[in-house]
Design brief:
It comes from Bos mutus grunniens. By secondary structure, this protein is an alpha/beta fold. Helices cover 56% and strands 11% of the residues. The protein contains 42 helices and 26 strands. A hairpin with a 2-residue loop joins strand 10 (553-558) and strand 11 (561-566).
Length: 1228
């Protein structure tokens, strides 16, 4: 036997001692953690398993079978797992029979546990997520992937602990049966029959565990997916007053989920109850059978029988049932992960490097489907060729297939026929700009080395100089998870700058000009597209028709088909000599053709050099703060009372005491039965109370999170919030109740055993009391560091989810730049940081277990030798009883201490949950004194000395605004990108509390509840937000309108025919974020949603920026007709969208520079409005006053406003309402 100090010196876990010393002195920080070993890194472990999975997929394809992830896992880990399983068997064999050998094998058992938990399925999951095809993305959600990473992968951590007991338990039972047969004969079979019945019953429980886990996982997927959508679309939810609706929806999902969890918990409770009851039942049945057979039994035989059955207690009645439970759940998790890994992957991208040096994009007879089951192709029969120095402009109405065409060039759209040849490196700008957490500079560099001269040229070409000057730290300003503090236009230009800085061969630009004002748009087209990219292949999707004359080719799409393709000269010639093939053409204002056209851009010979100047992408995901010190007693009180009243808690305590008091006598039948009964009631009651606690806490977190200001979501990445609603809630659902149940039962059992020992031999108290003190001090010392490690483990998990969610949002951009490997490395880095905390948490737990085992072994040795020394003073029965109880206590006492420490560590999840129930709240939703139901009648808006900032310590984004909008007036709000236009809307909706006065019909907006204010205004935002569900649910989430009203709203936004052509019409299921609709269609759905509310005030925040001009004009006309008696505020980049308004406000740098009637502002050559008009171009300048005059006269005469599509114009570039021809006429 090793002395304690010698063992501490020899123990390989002594490397943890410095960590415990640091934790004893101060709060642990991430830098205090040890780096993971090379063989334990995410990349190494994941690639190893990924290799076996790839082999399994190939084998399955060859044999025409389903691939099995289970086989891949077994092939990868079976050798090491089998070897370490031998140590598990040795531990069980020696634990109760040779206590003196415990010290020699206990460390091996702890190392076994650590080694087996190295199974890493996170990397294959993240690797698969980066390869998912667009059709596969419609079959999964971010919520499901987060659930797979947080809860399903965690099942492997649990199953590896107990899997070997599936064979160790029965094998040990056979060995014990043989020894009992030699000791007491055939009567031992009666007791073993009870054990066999139990094992068979546990096997039946396994099927129930599988079924319940399968149903629970699906409900958890839905809950986390809905939570993810709520967080992502929080601005839309708040402005539309949908908080209560989402609370109700998520609460219903949670209620269904918890009902399944509760059933599973009851089964777990039965398992734990059987652990304490079955051993007594087996002993009772064995001795009754022995008595019925008239067999004599001696005291030594009784001692031996009890000891042998106690040897089976852990392996067969605790670990074996837990192994069945964990294996049953793990099988479901393996199936779910396998289903995800089996989703369709993106088609192999086309060759990016030209074999002969020729750069080209050649598309011939392209036909492709997003959905294989669809009868109508997304694109059909497209052919074109683009060479270096050429600009291909792609135009067409909403939903024509323009973005799908770029996806086909990228290799994202599956082809059914035709050929796409892409030779050269691609840079891509998506229609909805994507930025990641990091600095503005890192977003632009995107892994390229910083070259100051080139960088500054790109900044200038993308019109970012002024914007960067306005940011506090310039291009080193940190961008948040959602691009805060950048506006949509600024994000679009950062995305464009990223593409330009890459110096690629081929540029695919998906309508980047729609999110910026006219001046910036002209700058981007001239300085960026025409100059910076003049030697590149450029395919530009655009609705800005005034730029078509500078295109080398023009491609018109409609319904996925090519209507016409040619050069600008060819369109000009055909329009002068041929009538339009489709009658009823409508005109769209464009540039004059009076001046000479620019010559085509010069060709570039050769390709851009392959990247030699790359470096890692700098993503910044700061760790969240965490508390320190012990878990507050108030946290325990809040947790328990959340699930039940104090009276139930007291009753639970009494049941526990009653269950323990009746465990004293083995051979009393009724006492044994009552022990079993009370044990079952206790277990079920504990699980019931704690499951209710988890549900109540979740609901409080949910309500609190939806009551927080928008600022909270700007500051906290989505993964940080989802972490608490997935992993922490998962701990409360699954692990914490089981740990508490185990601790309570062990604690009471230890008290009972110690009481019997002291009553039998009082001098034992001399040893037991110091033992208890040592355990208590060791636990205190251990928790000082372990609590911090657990908190670090929780906080380092958040960046994993945040990075994954961000990568999924920018998946198209990442794949276009061939940056999957870089983002995979970033994922590995976040995963390794979490692994550092996770492995430390495991090893600190093992550290405690080793020291507790050593102390217990010393205690047993001292008691045994003490009994030998006092042989003359003690009778054999007392010695046998004390020795048997001492050996039992050796396992129970240290397990009790470990479970108490584990329970406190698990309470960190409760602590983190309670932290989210006490967040800063925005103003009340309703006040006692509410405005009249008919308010506002007139829609007058008065703004006086308005100042607005998004946070108390943030800069002012609106400064001293004063304006008045009269009853039922139509006002336009214009200004440069980032001028504060959308911030004015945020102030109206009180997304952050404004300074100054905003009055609507004389009522101060800050004097009424947020819901009373927000539900009286309709808003159509620039960034469309749709949710998973039917089209009808997206249009009318509160189910307040009839089908006729919904169809009318769709007709007004020109979407009725599109929705009618969908397979399910109004019941068509939308994918996550509405990805099965184009961006323009999503904007129109959001606009229809705003129209349906029929409020007196309508706000349109660049809601048609991604819509073609003709549809935009039709919608504007419909809005003017429909809302003629309402107040309408229209935020736009183009003056042509607001020229028909009665007033225009011009914002610049957060200040109201000028306001007035359009005609007055346009005639004032010193006004900003006039300068903005001059940026539009000569011919459009000539058109604007004419349109303004006609609209003003129509308004004054009370007539229907002039349809701008039929207004006579001095020059026009005509496109038919079916986009079937391009008609050009020159100026007189």
């Amino acid at each position: 036997m090793f002395p304690v100090h010698l063992w501490a010196e020899l123990c390989p876990l002594r490397w943890l001692n410095p960590l415990f010393k640091i934790g004893h002195k101060r709060k642990l920080e991430p830098d205090d953690m040890y780096s993971v070993l090379p063989e334990d890194r995410s990349q190494h472990l994941g690639e190893e398993l990924q290799g076996y999975w790839d082999q399994e997929v190939k084998r399955a394809q060859k044999d025409a079978q389903e691939p099995s992830l289970m086989k891949a896992v077994i092939k990868c880990y079976w050798k090491s797992y089998l070897i370490w399983g031998m140590f598990t068997f040795l531990e069980v064999k020696d634990f109760h029979t040779v206590p003196q050998n415990t010290c020699s094998i206990v460390l091996c058992s702890k190392m076994t546990w650590y080694h087996l938990r190295n199974l890493d399925l996170c990397l294959p999951l993240s690797f698969q997520a980066l390869r998912l095809s667009s059709s596969a993305m419609g079959k999964t959600t971010t919520g499901q992937i987060v659930n797979l990473l947080s809860n399903d992968v965690n099942r492997f951590d649990q199953v590896t602990m107990f899997l070997h007991y599936l064979w160790v338990g029965p094998l040990q039972a056979v060995a014990v049966t043989a020894l009992l047969w030699m000791e007491i004969g055939i009567s031992c079979l009666a007791g073993m029959a009870v054990l066999i019945i139990l094992l068979l019953l546990q096997s039946c429980f396994g099927k129930l565990f599988s079924s319940l886990r399968s149903k629970t996982a699906v409900l958890t997927d839905d809950r986390i997916r809905t939570m993810n959508e709520a967080i992502t679309g929080i601005r839309t939810i708040k402005m539309n007053v949908w908080e209560k609706s989402f609370i109700g929806l998520i609460t219903r999902l949670r209620r269904k989920e918890i009902s399944k969890i509760l059933k599973s918990s009851y089964l777990k409770g039965m398992n734990l109850a059987s652990f304490f009851a079955v051993s007594k039942s087996i002993i009772l049945v064995t001795f009754i059978s022995n008595e019925l057979l008239d067999n004599l039994i001696t005291g030594s035989q009784v001692f031996m029988v009890v000891m042998l059955f106690e040897a089976l207690r852990f392996s067969s009645t605790l670990y074996f049932p837990m192994a069945i439970e964990k294996v049953s759940e793990a099988i479901i998790s393996i199936q779910r992960i396998k289903n995800f890994l089996s989703l369709d992957e993106m088609s192999q991208c086309y060759a990016q490097l030209p074999p002969d040096g020729e750069i080209i994009v050649d598309v011939q007879d392209l036909t492709g489907f997003w959905e294989k089951a669809s009868e109508t192709p997304t694109l059909q029969g497209l052919s074109f060729t683009v060479r270096p120095g050429e600009l291909l402009a792609v135009v067409g109405p909403v939903g024509a297939g323009k973005s799908s065409l770029l996806s086909a060039v990228l290799g994202e759209l599956p082809l059914s026929q035709g050929k796409v040849s892409v030779h050269g490196r691609i840079a891509y700008v998506s229609q909805q700009p994507w930025v990641f957490s990091g600095t503005v500079r890192s977003n632009i560099l995107f892994g390229k080395k910083y070259e100051k001269e080139r960088y500054e040229e790109v900044i200038k070409a993308c019109a970012l100089e002024e914007d960067l000057r306005l940011l506090r730290e310039g291009d080193l300003t940190e961008i948040g998870d959602r691009g805060i503090p950048l506006s949509e236009g600024q994000k679009a230009r950062v995305s464009l700058a990223r593409a330009v800085y890459q110096d690629a061969d081929i540029y695919l630009l998906d309508d980047p000009l729609s999110t910026v004002d006219a001046g910036v748009s002209r700058h981007l087209f001239q300085q960026c597209v025409c100059q910076a990219l003049k030697e590149k292949i450029t395919i530009l999707v655009t609705h800005q028709l005034q730029y078509l004359k500078d295109a080398s080719q023009i491609l018109i799409l409609k319904d996925g088909k090519m209507v016409k393709r040619g050069t600008y000269f060819e369109f000009l010639k055909s329009s002068q000599s041929e009538p339009s093939p489709v009658p009823g053409t409508s005109t769209v204002i464009s540039e004059s053709l009076g001046r000479p056209l620019q010559s085509p851009r010069p060709l570039l010979k050769g390709a851009a050099q392959e990247e030699q100047d790359t470096e890692n992408i700098q993503v910044t995901l700061p760790l969240e703060g965490h508390l320190e010190g012990k878990v507050d007693s108030k946290t325990y009180a809040n947790y328990f009372t959340a699930g039940a009243h104090w009276s139930v808690i007291i009753f639970l305590i009494l049941v526990n005491i009653a269950a323990q008091v009746r465990k004293g006598i083995y051979l009393d039948l009724w006492l044994t039965l009552s022990t079993i009964l009370f044990g079952i009631i206790r277990s079920l009651l504990i699980f019931y109370v704690l499951a209710n606690s988890a549900q109540t806490l979740h609901n409080k977190m949910l309500e609190s999170i939806l009551r927080t200001p928008v600022l909270f979501f700007n500051r906290n990445p989505i993964g940080r919030i989802l972490n608490r609603f997935s992993k922490d809630i998962g701990h409360m659902d699954d692990l914490l109740p089981q740990t508490f149940q185990d601790f309570i039962q062990m604690f009471l059992l230890v008290i009972g055993v110690v009481g019997v020992m002291v009553a039998s031999i009082p001098w034992i108290a001399i040893l037991v009391i110091p033992l208890g003190i040592i355990f208590f001090v060791l636990r205190w010392y251990f928790l000082r560091a372990s609590r911090d490690v657990k908190r670090l483990e929780s906080t380092t998990r958040s960046p994993v989810f945040s990075h994954l969610a961000s990568s999924l949002r920018g998946l198209g951009t990442i794949r276009a730049y061939k940056a999957e490997h870089k983002f995979q490395k970033l994922f590995d880095a976040h995963q390794d940081l979490h692994s550092e905390a996770w492995f430390l948490l495991l090893m600190t737990s093992r550290w405690l277990a080793v020291y507790l085992d050593v102390i217990c072994a010393i205690f047993v040795t001292v008691v045994a030798f003490g009994a030998l020394i006092l042989t003359d003073a003690l009778n054999p029965e007392e010695v046998g009883l004390v020795l048997s109880l001492t050996i039992t206590l050796m396992g129970m006492f240290q397990w009790c201490v470990r479970q108490s420490a584990e329970a406190e560590n698990m309470m960190i999840s409760v602590e983190r949950g309670i932290e989210y129930t006490d967040l800063e709240k925005e103003a009340p939703w309703e006040y006692e004194h509410r405005p009249p139901p008919s308010w506002p009648l007139d829609g007058r808006i008065s703004i006086d000395n308005l100042k607005f900032r998004y946070s108390l310590d943030g800069p002012l984004v609106l400064k001293n605004l004063d304006t008045f909008i009269g009853s039922r007036e139509k006002h336009g709000i214009v200004g440069r990108t980032g001028a504060g236009k959308s911030s004015l809307i945020a102030a109206l909706f009180r997304l952050s509390e404004p300074e100054g006065d905003i009055k609507i019909d004389g009522i101060l907006t800050t004097s009424i509840g947020l819901h009373d204010l927000r539900k009286k205004m309709s808003v159509a935002p620039q960034e469309p937000v749709l949710f998973t569900g039917t089209m009808r649910n997206n249009l009318d989430p509160l189910n307040e309108h009839t089908n006729e009203e919904l169809w009318n709203a769709l007709e007004e936004v020109q979407l009725k025919d599109t929705i009618k052509n969908l397979p399910g019409k109004m019941n068509t299921e939308l994918a996550e974020y509405g990805l099965n609709l184009s961006v323009g269609q999503r904007q129109l759905v959001c606009l229809a949603r705003a129209i349906l509310k029929k409020n007196q005030i309508l706000i349109i925040d660049k809601a048609t920026s991604n819509v073609d001009p003709r549809t935009d004009e039709l919608i504007q006309t419909k809005i003017r007709e429909r809302f003629a008696h309402c107040t309408v505020l229209t935020i736009a980049h183009s003056l042509s969208s607001v020229i028909n308004c009665q007033g225009i406000m011009v914002l610049d740098s957060g200040r109201l520079k000028e306001t007035g009637q359009p005609n007055d502002l346009l005639q004032n050559r010193n006004s900003l409005c006039y300068k903005m008009m001059q940026q539009l171009g000569k011919d459009e300048v000539a058109v604007l006053p004419e349109r303004e005059k006609q609209d003003r006269e129509s308004y004054l005469n009370g007539l229907t406003l002039c349809d701008p599509m039929n207004c006579s114009t001095p020059a026009s570039l005509s496109i038919t309402n079916s986009w079937s021809s391009l008609k050009v006429t020159s100026i007189e």
